[in-house]
Design goal:
This protein has 3 helices and no strands. It is mostly helical and 106 residues long. The radius of gyration is 21 Å and the shape is elongated.
Length: 106
């Protein structure tokens, strides 16, 4: 039983619950690296009963993020400090320096 105040056996999803689900499902269903052998809970389509495997997709194109080369960049309201930190050229230079330090030496 979900609630004893008003006898209920299932959670009725609210708008806030739907918003939370959009952000939490990808964390819960993280793919093969995070799946356990015991699958105690699975997400299914209520109409067909088919299992649903959620993934992040781009709202505009519908393409899965896993198929895109996505990166975070400074938004229109970002501070100068944020713009500096997220500048693609500076980030690339930091990665290159890190990779040079961590690569094995002959």
């Amino acid at each position: 039983m979900y609630s004893t105040k008003q006898a209920r056996y299932e959670y009725i999803v609210t708008d806030k619950g739907r918003d939370h689900a959009r952000s939490s499902w990808p964390c819960t269903f993280g793919g093969p690296r995070t799946r356990r052998t015991a699958r105690n809970v699975v997400l299914v389509d209520q109409v067909t009963g088919s299992e649903i495997v959620p993934e992040f997709v781009d709202h505009y194109s519908g393409r899965p993020l896993s198929s895109m080369r996505a990166e975070f960049v400074a938004g229109p309201d970002a501070s100068e400090d944020m713009r500096r930190r997220l500048d693609p050229d500076r980030r690339r230079a930091r990665r290159d320096r890190h990779n040079a330090r961590s690569s094995p030496r002959p």
